[in-house]
Amino acid sequence: MYSQNKILELRNLKKYYPVYGGVLRRVKNHVKALDGIDLDIYRGECVGVVGESGCGKTTASKAIVRLHTPTAGRILFHRNGRDDGESITDISRLKRGALKRKGIREKLQMVFQDPSTSLNPRMLVKHIITEPLREYTDLSSREMENRVVELLNMVGLSKTHLMRYPHEFSGGQRQRIAVARAIASHPEFLVLDEPTSALDVSVQAQILNLLLSLRDKFNLTYLFVTHHLLVVKYISTRIVVMYLGKIVEMSGTKDLFATPFHPYTFALLSGIPIPGSEQRMKRIVLSGDVPNPLNPPRGCRFHTRCPFAFKQCGDEEPGLEEIAPGHFSACHLKSRSRQKVRDKFGNGM
Length: 349
Description:
This protein is of the alpha/beta class. The chain has helices spanning about 55-65, 95-100, 115-120, 125-135, 140-155, 170-185, 200-220, 230-235, 255-260, 265-270, 310-315, 335-345; strands at about 5-20, 25-40, 45-50, 70-80, 90, 110, 190-195, 220-225, 240-245, 245-250, 320-325, 325-330.
């Protein structure tokens, strides 16, 4: 069970990418990859972020660890689980040097989707894991080597792997090395950007169990980005559903799978195959493609594909409303209409 101490607050977070055109290469438009999200993340929990490709999942994760600078909004980092003013830092506008001086970089780390591209192919494993230790600690060479061996043991590897290159390992082993590098600086928060999507199913389970054991051992907090709903159901304590740069539903994992409220969440859950059991939700096939983020629809961004859309959906953007304790949904359908949706498509999984 996670604590009620916040580690991160996202407030109206936006990330727009300029689109240039014309002879003078002036800004003609913006891709609204992330268009105003609000989210609180608590210490010790694993927040899963799901949605179709292009919904803003990876953009949000990279903005949080400041690989991207947000266009607008605030990212408030709470140090050591305290909520007093001195321990809260707005990192949304900090420059690279300030992030290092204030000790933010080592506390917020990331594990990328494909370890074959995130690990330098010309560096030995020893040097890959030593890199953050040289950057963020003042350990001696002997202490660094001992620490690297300790980290390898934590992720299921050994001292014999120190003097090898990434290409000499399997995909699962490379991801273990990436995890070891991420936890080398004693972080408090890890962003996991689809860390199992490039792996075989059996290896996925091993990496997920490794991440769970590390979270319990070091009281880590995770933001787990994925498109695989069964994976996020296994590892997450809470789930955020995104569509076209917006959060459309947010709830505890059990509640979201048992009683989804938003039609988009119904559509996502209806596509999950359950081997050996009857599907309780009828398959919902969404019509059309995801709208262009250069020119998102007015009102609810999902209304152009929603089977239950009515006039208000195209005129007015819905805000996140608490439908049940801890369960939020951004939809104009009222409770009676939502019950009709559940009656038609099932009650969840």
